[in-house]
Amino acid sequence: MANPLGWAGLAQWSFLLAAFGAMLLAVWLVDRRRRGKPSARTEIAALGLTALWAMLAAGVGQTYFVTQAAEVLRNLGWLAVVYASFARDGRHTSVGPVRPVLIVLAMLELFQPGLLLLNVRYAGNASAQGMIFQMSVMFRLLLVTGALVLVHNLYVGSVSAQRGAVRWICGALAIIWGYDLNYYTIAYLGSQVPIEMAAIRGLATLIAVLLLCIGALRGQSTLRFSPSRTIAFQSLSLLVIGGYMIAMVAAAQSLAWLGGNVGQLAQLGFAFATTIVVVALVPSRRLRGYLNVWLAKHFFQHRYDYRAEWLRFTRTIGRGGAGATPLHDRVVQAVADITDSSRGLLLVPGEHGDLMLAARWQWPTLEVPAEAMAAASAAFFERRGFIVDCDEIRDGVDHGGEATLMPRWLIEDDSVWALVPLLHFDRLVGLVVLGHPPLPRKLDWEDFDLLRVVGQQLASYLAEHGGQVALLEASRFDEFNRRIAFVMHDIKNLASQLALLSRNAERHADNPEFRKDMLVTLRNAADKLNALLARLSRYGAGNVERLEEVEAADVIRAIALRYDPVQNAATGDGPRVFVTDAQPCKLLANRETLEQVLLHLVQNAIDASPPGMAVFLQTRSEGLWGYVEVIDTGCGMSADFVRNRLFKPFVSTKNGGFGIGAFEARELVTAMRGRLDVESREGLGSRFTVRLPLAATASLIDSLSSPSGGGGNDSAKKVA
């Protein structure tokens, strides 16, 4: 075993050197300050208190009352240095996240003088002194654990270019408190002060003073502390873990004092209960969400870590590749991630100014009508750029008249939380509907500011995407024009052939062989023309020459009759088309054009339905308009397909199809002053609704469509 006198001598010399070095550095910093160079007062005071403590430890010993009181002052001095390092350059608001931790650590250290007095009071009671020693060491362990966490955050949370200002002071404090952590841990486990570690404690202090001297010689730059939320959350977690460990040690020691079987049984029950609590709470997403909200509310001036939010935003929007989700879905996800919402929708403007569903993100259950929001409501968002909190509307709060403009399906569903407009150069390109987050909260000014900026950025992405789609569509039209050029070339060849035949007929009409060849040539030309017309008949221009009164109920009955296997043997056992509700509905339309549109929609419904499934037709009238609906229970379509592919020309899911059938149907309905709406759910089916003006209200619609009536179909729509 080592000689105690040898360790005592080493301790005396090491503390003397540490005291000399700390005092010398403090005096040099005072002189620098007198000459106008930057030197921190708190660091000078902490060095002076460290020199005092080291001098007393060398002179009278570490265990005496006066030396331990000096150690309390030393620790408080270095905590003040940490506080000043966080608040340097006058930005005292940066200490907000750590000020409560510093106050708690200082209060823990202030318990030590009371414990010292109690130790003197119960000098003759060995059990009482043992308990006081354990409590003192436990408080010191908690102090050094929290102090090391703060030192870690002080270095990691500073800007990378300015870490040189705190590198040396953080290293010195890490050595002082890191050594104390091991020193007091061994003291607690052994219930006595470790003589060997106490002897070389002065050397650790001397090394820390040397690091501070190096830092002072290298100079200090201005420090701006900017801890990330991740660091703050991890720091809080470390403090909680440290407190939990201290509580476990204290509880175990208290139970051990019970003794006997009672102590063992209590230890077992305590361990079992704490394990159940930890297992139940740690994986809880709701608990983590609560902690994040609590930290943001009480420890930060701002709710959001804008750097982290921007990086996540760019990763979500920039994700590409064959397996990536559509852009419209990613737009919803990018907004929902900011507010921790678990679901959302994207509404985009239609041709008539109203909003229609474009994408769902993790929200398949919400029922969205074909006209999700009227044009007047969309104009409000475009004009005001207002972010709507639906909970406020439900509570009767109306800031700018938005309550009267919101559709009922949004307000009646309590799961809808907020509406975020996406504006591009004062033009509404989309509206994101957000669901409530797992942890309910109110939107505040910071939410509104961030969502408004993100909405503008997303609007630019959508506008760019729309421009690319328009360019692609233009290129496809160009390709279609080239195809038509080939068709015209074939027709020109046939016309030339027939012209030549007619000229030869004038000279050789009496020749039997010529007549025979002429018939073959005419038959071939007719076959070619008929084949060409058959291919192009369904893709005609769709001009509507004359509108008249048409009974829609008669039209859907005639269409259903075409698919009746009894009336038309050609259909065999194919699909059935049923008329479920044929209300009298006299429309202003062109009968042939309306039949062409409905036949196309019915055929599409049959193609999308499994064999044997029926397609349903029905009519109804409402206000100034009549409606004809084609309903199927087939595979349905996604919102992305309806928005971006269904009515796009030259996009077809059928082999050899031109992909302009649905496009032509909508154009024909528009030419009859109506509109074609679609509601579809994947796996459930689709509903196509043809809306046309009633014949009885045609004059009224015409007056509303005149320049004095306020602008075409939109005016008629507002009256409806």
From TrEMBL:
InterPro entries: GAF, GAF-like_dom_sf, HATPase_C_sf, HATPase_dom, His_kinase_dom, Sig_transdc_His_kin-like_C, XrtA/PrsK. GO terms for cellular component: plasma membrane. Residues 486-696 form the Histidine kinase domain. The keyword Coiled coil does not apply. Its EC number is 2.7.13.3. Pfam families: GAF, HATPase_c. It catalyses: ATP + protein L-histidine = ADP + protein N-phospho-L-histidine. The chain crosses the membrane at residues 12-30, 42-66, 72-89, 101-120, 132-156, 168-186, 198-217, 238-259, 265-282. Keywords: Kinase, Membrane, Transferase, Transmembrane, Transmembrane helix. One of its GO terms (molecular function) is phosphorelay sensor kinase activity. This is histidine kinase. It comes from Novosphingobium olei.
